[in-house]
Amino acid sequence: MDRAATTPTQPRPPGAGHHAFELPRLTAMLRHALPRFVEGVIAPVAVFYAAFALLGLNGALIAAVAWVYGGIGWRYARGHGVPAMLLLAAVGVTVRAVLAAVTHSAVVYFLQPTLGTLMVAVTFLASVPLGRPLAQKVATDMVPMPEAFLRHDRVRRFFLRISLLWSLVFFVNAVLSLWMLFNESIGVYLWVRTGLVAALGAAAVGVSVWGFRRCLHHVNGEPAAVPVR
């Protein structure tokens, strides 16, 4: 007699199906993201504004470029790899600084990334009717997920909704930035806009994580599919 046929089948716990996925702890994700946020968002603003107040526009532009290339050099010196996005950012900052120096306008320096933010908003929005939500691509770049999990209907609906949310967030970011850029001083623009955008982004991240945890709870709680023999 086939022993496998007489062995009792062990019950499968909820979430043991092919679509189960566990989200890393929030504290671990924050420890991973916080240094990059400080390096990429807070520090460049502080460096630019300090140099702007002490040395004027040209000094601030030089300081901003030096900060980016200094970060690249620091990574090389420590034997760490330099992400391609950081190299592209360095090129972008260099071009912006040259244009701002030629035109003698700080507005030109900050206008390009604001227009880029508006394009990101449009991209998130366009990904929804195409059925390829950009939020899913961003999330899987940060936390690899199994294909079976991503094909689940509830998961796909979640990423479509979150793509709409982030489209709205980036659109508000761009509109707010443009208004402040042309109506407020550079100092007010740098600090107030940075604070508002950071708060808006943090709220959107909170909603996204909360929604994803709810989605995981429902998906992982579904009974595993029993293969038909």
Task: Describe the main β-sheet briefly.
Answer: none
Find the structural class using helix and strand composition. mainly alpha
Q: Total helix count?
A: 8
The percent range for strand residues is under 5%
Strand segment count: 0
Number of domains: 2
How far apart lie the N and C ends? 19 Å
Helix content: over 70%
Gross morphology: globular
Protein name: DUF3159 domain-containing protein
Pfam families: DUF3159 (PF11361)
Transmembrane segments: 46-69, 81-102, 108-128, 158-182, 188-212
Keywords: Membrane, Transmembrane, Transmembrane helix
Note the main attributes of this structure:
229 residues, disordered N terminus, mainly alpha, 2 domains, 0% strand, globular, 77% helix, single chain
Description:
- Helices cover 77% and strands 0% of the residues.
- The two termini are 19 Å apart.
- The chain has 229 residues and is mainly α.
- It has two domains: 71 residues; 118 residues, no CATH class.
Task: Summarize the structure in short.
This protein is mainly alpha-helical. The protein has helices at residues 3-6, 26-77, 84-103, 106-127, 134-142, 147-150, 153-183, 186-220. It starts with a helix and ends in a 9-residue tail after the last helix.
